[in-house]
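Homework help board

Subject: predicted structure for assignment chain

Our instructor gave us this sequence and asked us to write out the predicted structure in token form, then describe one feature. I got the tokens but I'm not sure how to describe them. Can anyone check?
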Amino acid sequence: QVQLVESGGGLVQAGGSLRLSCATSTHTFSNSVMGWFRQAPGKERDFVSAINRSTGSTYYADSVKGRFTISRDNAKRTVYLQMNSLKPEDTAVYYCAVGPYSSTYYQARNPSQYDSWGQGTQVTVSS
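My token output:
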């Protein structure tokens, strides 16, 4: 199973920025998708963003479009989530996930598309 290690979470004021990182143990980069989800207390886990490793196609939830940017470094086997203009409603535990298949936008939004998950990193945005 792929191991994922997230980092970069923390406490930031509204309007600030954070960059999350997710390092993977896998050497397989073709035909796979990497995604970020988040879960606030008492709420379901929601899709944030995803990137296809082979094509570089990126997808975003409407709530983060224009503020968050996903990218990947294949040499480092790492995916990043740059989060700008953070809002208090972005407060959540952020999870990185990897799936074995290159995905469309609608597939990438579905947690079942992913078979390995990180432990999560807390992001707190104060008002």
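Reply (TA_rk): Your tokens look well-formed. For the description, you could write something like this. Helices lie at 105-108. That's the kind of observation they're looking for.
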